[in-house]
Amino acid sequence: xxxxxxxxxxxxxxxxxxxxxxxxxxxxxxxxxxxxxxxxxxxxxxxxxxxxxxxxxxxxxxxxxxxxxxxxxxxxxxxxxxxxxxxxxxxxxxxxxxxxxxxxxxxxxxxxxxxxxxxxxxxxxxxxxxxxxxxxxxxxxxxxxxxxxxxxxxxxxxxxxxxxxxxxxxxxxxxxxxxxxxxxxxxxxxxxxxxxxxxxxxxxxxxxxxxxxxxxxxxxxxxxxxxxxxxxxxxxxxxxxxx
Length: 243
Ligand SMILES: CCCc1ccc(-c2ccc(S(=O)(=O)CCO)cc2)cc1[C@H]1C[C@H]1c1ccccn1
Prior knowledge:
alpha+beta
């Protein structure tokens, strides 16, 4: 297994996500507040201010039927399809490929009134988790995949002028579980469900008005999760299942 200059930091963050992020809210004792519900998707947040900047972490628990953890994580990680579901991104560049499952991305986001536009520079890695823990909804996982995105520095960022650098720490943890083949259909896709935990801490960088940022981010997270999960279901529905 080849390693790269971020291998150590990446595996530390993966371990942390497996220990903490995958825990359903309320179990890990933190003060997660349910802040939005849409169908099967529940969004929780905590109030966190760092140097006067709002960095409320988000934890979304979701489940989508008829897709596998690998299909969800692959469509989230694959750069070629990013623009098909990520509506808030303006510029998007892969700066470096560290290995077959790890890249460094530069992206700028569409300007948000009244603040300056933001950009992000982050490592994005997809990995399959061996000996999968039980899912956040308490199901026996058939398999577990994760995408881990976190901010790094890079010499060739060549940022869009005028952008304020936002920093991110994101994980998408997906677990497939097989539901009992109760109905007659022998199509395996009808018997799989994917439990999803999406955790994100976004530090918007320079000051953004508190009264504006909290509701804005909540709306954006809900929109992003809705768009992305719908995209994956549409993309995979006529394809052979890939575990
Ligand atoms: C708030 C400062 C601006 C801002 C910085 C950062 C991000 C952002 C970066 C990465 C990821 S991701 O989950 O890793 C998927 C790859 O893009 C999601 C969101 C979004 C916004 C803007 C668009 C707003 C947004 C979108 C979604 C969630 C929260 N905020």
